[in-house]
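Render this sequence as a predicted structure.
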Amino acid sequence: MVRLLYRFCLVALVTGMGLVGAYGCRRGSPDPPRQAILIILDAARPDRFSCYGYARATTPEMDRLASRGVLFRRHFAQDTSTRPSVSSLMYSRFFCIPLFPGNPQVLYSRPAALFRRPDDAQISFVKALELDGFKTGAISAHEWTGDRTAFAAEFTEMHDLATRLGTRERPLPSAGTVIDYAISWIRENKDRDYFLYIHLMDPHYPHYFEADAQEFFGASWYDAHNFTPDGGPIVPDSALSETDRRYANALYDGSMRYTDRHVGRLAEFLTQEDLIGHTVVTISADHGENLFDAPGGRTREGAAIFTHGGPWLDPLAWVPLIIHYPRKLEPSEFQNLSEGVDVGPTILSLLDVPVPAGKAFDGTDLVQVISGKAPPKSHVLKPGAIRTDKYKCFFEPPDEVLFGEPAPDASTLSGQLYDLASDPGETANLFQSEPEVVAALLQRYRTSLATHYRRYESARSSAQPSSAFAISAKHMLTDVQLPQATRERLADGWSRVKLGSQFVITASNPNEPLSVHFPLPNGAYKLAVNMQGHVILEIGNQHRELNAKGVAEFGVVNVTDEVFRATIRPQSNQRVAIAFFGFIPPAAVTQDRAEIEEQTERLRALGYVD
């Protein structure tokens, strides 16, 4: 009856009957409004939460919520960076268009996705809530969720605090600022059905040696000579001393404690307003973080690894999930596997919101699993990888090979296999020595994801993107086979070099031109090149002489036949390097140049732009 009344209110609004407002029809209902808050803690690791067993009291406020709700012990994100992970969570899709960077100096992680569109059955769980009468809002400190993004379009209100408040010196609005906005928003909307997404960036680099970090580090003196003022290692590849590690841990733990304090402030506000009992409060993360001595963190010649991105190893894949909703969930700990695509369906279930007709999610309603009405998961997935209780397997061939017909012979594939029971640090690759295990996991991967993959691949679009982006040298195809070189050993002529997480196409003694190409939707683009050296760049019938160390503007280019082609002609015997091409389509050109530069500086301060 309540649902019928609510739907009548919406129809009355649309037909001009003049009732109380788009989201305000429940005032006369005997039931409290349906309300939910999802808090994403960027780069938060569960093993740094005291409720997950960490020795330090980093999260006492979230511990209290966990003790009165459901703590999910083994929850995994669908990727190790924000853009694909948040997109998968929003749409409950294993294969999903990542959030667009919106900046011509930020690399697009999956260029093939430039030709994708949402499939016909795709809908964000946020949009499903709006269709059922909810007001939806997002308050975010993250640069990727700005006003012009597809993410923002999913909400009735977007509060992009990163753009409004971020600076180069302090690129991220603090948890205190974000929670202030959240409390004001909730106060204004507490009498209606609402969903609020909150994205906090404090667990993410940069970290500052402020009060909480100082308390965790202790009173001993340390000059932090191996770290920048914002907590980054000056030489990321260098080994750290015990004191260095203690300092790094104090920085991260201090950021967690600061974040927790303000999450607690939000919970206290909900309690004082008598909202906590009927509000679904969900806390999770988009990915974890490598913290130098993290179990599973990759090392190179003894060097420690910092931040995130890269392989789906547990320090990055494993994330917290806490759901507090006393109306429907008894306090408990969930020991089985769960994953990011499950979050949206679970929130809809707790709010009694149906999946709209013709739409579908890839994830599982965890309420059904907790109640015993659905079986627990035997594995979790991401594109190119599968994790069970015992094993994690990465497949190196692309998905078009993995989902080919007939199925590929597992013994011919390359990849990584780890026995998580005996090797939780994921250091001993068993891919070649355990072919039967690999074959079984490949079959499970194909069975679980083939339908989802084909649906994603079939949703093709040739439309030009509306946001700026960059294509890395990693994804450039060439007219000759390029050797893989190292920073220390460059081959004569052209080669492709991996520098940290980035790639460049370079020549130490260039004597021949090099042609590169890659797929790109047709249309006109403003083009810039991140490069070093002196070259003539030929694109179509246009020729430009560029001599730069950094970003060089080329001008407007036209892409036809869905392929971008360029020829690089060195003009001296000095080293030449091309890192990426940056593209600004017409829909993004209206963005003010100064605004782009300000955003780039914020992204550089966050480590997203070199």
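Summary. The chain has four domains: 1-31, 33-375, 384-458, 469-584. Residues 58 and 257 are 5 Å apart (CA to CA).
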